[in-house]
Write a structure and sequence with these properties.
This protein is an alpha+beta fold and 260 residues long. It contains 11 helices and 9 strands. 48% of the residues lie in helices and 20% in strands. It starts with a helix and ends in an 8-residue tail after the last helix.
Length: 260
């Protein structure tokens, strides 16, 4: 195999894994790329050693590493579309007086990729961006469990719960669909609440937009009114994505220097 062919195949595998909404196994990668499995494994191992891909030790599935995404930080920060996204978060934060953010599902991880600080330091503020969030106890994770186009994400997560918890989560997903948003009230952090709405483009969930604040200010009585603002913001973001003013690649390239 010549160096040129090797470089082309390496780029093809990296592009394939990076574009997948879920981690990929060796057989899937070989099939989709039409590259022999023996060649794939050699390239994939090298990419893992170079910290460009990660492999789950249990499932043996590959995904883009946080280190690779971090390499894109400078380009993303200078990109005008990111400024438009941040502008929408500033608008949402100003209308709700709370911290606002945008999250993605990257592989199996819910990741905060953009955030605008609110007026009061709470659990969401003062933490690094990006950072991981749990699917079950965060508003944005619950949104992905409710609206994401891949049903296996919710199925696999719910399967880890006991029968009573499975029933509770299914009821909550149903309620989320009816009202158009998800809520976490003093679940992820004591004394904190958050509301997330899905950003849908052509019936596909692209990301979530959320607000978070202290639960004494985001009370159950206040949540519906605040949620209406979050849903409005999600609709505006969907228009930006649908009209090409912001691209999915720009969102996925958000810096991921550190997670919690």
């Amino acid at each position: 195999m010549t160096q040129a062919v090797l470089a082309t195949r390496t780029a093809a595998l990296l592009r394939l894994v990076a574009s997948s909404p879920a981690p990929l196994g060796l057989s899937e990668i070989a099939r989709e790329s039409t590259i022999p499995k023996a060649t794939c494994i050699r390239i994939l191992r090298a990419l893992v050693e170079e910290d460009l891909l990660e492999i789950d030790p249990d499932t043996r599935r590959y995904r883009v590493s946080f280190a690779l995404t971090a390499l894109m930080a400078d380009r993303v920060q200078a990109d005008g579309s990111i400024d438009r996204l941040r502008g929408e978060l500033i608008r949402l934060g100003a209308s709700t007086h709370e911290t606002a953010g945008i999250d993605l599902l990257i592989g199996d991880d819910v990741v905060v990729v953009l955030q605008v600080e609110g007026p009061q330091l709470i659990s969401q503020t003062g933490k690094p961006v990006p950072r991981r969030l749990p699917l079950l106890r965060s508003s944005t994770g619950k949104a992905f469990l409710t609206w994401h186009h891949d049903p296996l994400i919710a199925t696999a997560t719910i399967a880890t719960l006991g029968p009573a918890e499975q029933t509770r989560v299914e009821k909550e997903r149903s309620a989320n669909r009816q009202r158009g948003y998800a809520v976490a009230f003093e679940e992820l952090d004591p004394d904190a609440a958050a509301i997330a709405a899905p950003v849908m483009v052509h019936d596909t969930m692209i990301c979530t937009v959320w607000i978070g604040g202290p639960s004494f200010r985001m009370t159950p009585a206040d949540i519906p009114g605040l949620a209406a603002r979050v849903v409005e913001s999600a609709n505006r973001l969907a228009i930006l994505l649908r009209t090409g003013q912001v691209s999915l690649d720009d969102l996925r390239s958000a810096p991921m220097k550190e997670v919690s």
